[in-house]
Amino acid sequence: MSSRDSKHSDDLKDAIQGIETLEKASTSSIDANYDPSFVRKTIRMVDWRMLPLLGLLYSVALIDRINLGVARTAGMQEDLKLQVGNRYSIASMIYFFPYMLLQIPGNLILRSIGPRNLLTICVVGWGIAQLGMAFVKTWGFLCLCRIFLGAFESVFFPSLVFIITTWYKRYEVQQRLAVFYLSSIAISSFSSVLAYAISLLAGKANLNGWRWIFLLEGALTICLGVLAWFFVPDFPDKSKWLTVEQRKMILDRVEADRGDSVPDELTRAKFFSHLKDPLLWAFGLMFLASTVPAYAIAFFITIILKAMGFSTAQALLLTAPPGIWAAISCFFFAWLSDKTKHRAGWMVVQNMITITGLAIAAYAISNPVRYFGLFLVYGGATGCIPGVLAYSSNNITTHTKRAVHTASIVLWGGVGGIMATTVFREQDFPRYVNGMWATIGLQLMMIVLLGITTFVFKRRNRLRREGKIGPLEGQEDFYYTI
């Protein structure tokens, strides 16, 4: 091994040791003040209060967002003439413009309005928009409903991520994000099966099957929005369902871990300072690269399967298994990432899995082999979504920076949705080779960005340990997660 390689290895070991020392110090500090069984019991209470409900709500958001492809297969294309020009792509894409524009404002007002009020408004609002799609007579009104759907859903996901990351320590975050996200993926994977069952109501009340899909799913969303008002948890410092001692313990753990348990005041200077952080843009581009293949599968999997020769019923039913596999893969890599206290390397592995799946789906001759490729694409891309969010949240402090970063990064997911609906063009049907290559290019870009951020974080950690730079992220004992 060369001296340069040896130094590189020593730097990595020093970085890991520094982070592990910080983690052990914070843990021992907590154990010295609280009974470990009390800590475990409280954290489990938080898990059960937060993750199942938020996962269910987000699964409904995903279903309502992506069921356009299922409805198209179930008869909407003929009724609204979506085969004309690029109508389907436009109807899919137009959702993302309000979705992108309102994310940062939504996160900035979250604390003042409160999670319960804001999330309830969002869920009920998009449920009404979903319900409205059951009665549209023209393609134009479908697009209008999609705009309202995007507006109300825009605040939802970044708010959920922001809320979850304020409750846990850094190396507890990705598993929680993955549980919340994979539960939504697993449930939404059966949306096509559910939609197929609902579409069998075609003819009842003089409504076609696709109209019943929007009608019943919209009504369910509105009911869950009302439920959210009673059970959605607030921020740790404001939650009344915990005892005073439990709240204090949660805040003490966060303070010992990263020093931002107390929310700071947002100013104009802070807002623009957070936006100018180059790392924010790097994380945003990574999120873009992760969401393009995930959205492409969501919007086009039933169409691709039908082009393979499967019947409408078979195409709808076969969408579930890749989603189940994606949920399993997502949680496995999240567990591995938290256990090893390492983020970037595991995401590179998932990027390579995605690239392999894209190549198989584009060029394999056998349809079963192409179907296997879709498993790899969905599994690899889905795991990177909570991975990027955890990687980002681990390397920032303060509530204002967390609010701006989370919303800005998720905003890039909207760009990913637009790209997925445009690079997978109608004229490239049924293999969408151009779209596959565009998505492969994004995976390669993400690998490069992960290499750059790893270099930057390792260098800053080393300089801090050597005393050559001041406290990282304004916290005396803070070190970046690699």
TrEMBL record:
<feature type="transmembrane region" description="Helical">
    <location>
        <begin position="179"/>
        <end position="198"/>
    </location>
</feature>
<feature type="transmembrane region" description="Helical">
    <location>
        <begin position="403"/>
        <end position="424"/>
    </location>
</feature>
<dbReference type="GO" id="GO:0022857">
    <property type="term" value="F:transmembrane transporter activity"/>
</dbReference>
<keyword id="KW-0812">Transmembrane</keyword>
<dbReference type="InterPro" id="IPR011701">
    <property type="entry name" value="MFS"/>
</dbReference>
<feature type="domain" description="Major facilitator superfamily (MFS) profile">
    <location>
        <begin position="50"/>
        <end position="462"/>
    </location>
</feature>
<keyword id="KW-0472">Membrane</keyword>
<dbReference type="InterPro" id="IPR036259">
    <property type="entry name" value="MFS_trans_sf"/>
</dbReference>
<feature type="transmembrane region" description="Helical">
    <location>
        <begin position="371"/>
        <end position="391"/>
    </location>
</feature>
<feature type="transmembrane region" description="Helical">
    <location>
        <begin position="348"/>
        <end position="365"/>
    </location>
</feature>
<feature type="transmembrane region" description="Helical">
    <location>
        <begin position="316"/>
        <end position="336"/>
    </location>
</feature>
<feature type="transmembrane region" description="Helical">
    <location>
        <begin position="279"/>
        <end position="304"/>
    </location>
</feature>
<feature type="transmembrane region" description="Helical">
    <location>
        <begin position="50"/>
        <end position="68"/>
    </location>
</feature>
<dbReference type="InterPro" id="IPR020846">
    <property type="entry name" value="MFS_dom"/>
</dbReference>
<dbReference type="GO" id="GO:0016020">
    <property type="term" value="C:membrane"/>
</dbReference>
<feature type="transmembrane region" description="Helical">
    <location>
        <begin position="147"/>
        <end position="167"/>
    </location>
</feature>
<keyword id="KW-1133">Transmembrane helix</keyword>
<keyword id="KW-0813">Transport</keyword>
<feature type="transmembrane region" description="Helical">
    <location>
        <begin position="117"/>
        <end position="135"/>
    </location>
</feature>
<feature type="transmembrane region" description="Helical">
    <location>
        <begin position="436"/>
        <end position="457"/>
    </location>
</feature>
<feature type="transmembrane region" description="Helical">
    <location>
        <begin position="210"/>
        <end position="232"/>
    </location>
</feature>
<protein>
    <submittedName>
        <fullName>High-affinity nicotinic acid transporter</fullName>
    </submittedName>
</protein>
<dbReference type="Pfam" id="PF07690">
    <property type="entry name" value="MFS_1"/>
</dbReference>
<feature type="transmembrane region" description="Helical">
    <location>
        <begin position="88"/>
        <end position="110"/>
    </location>
</feature>
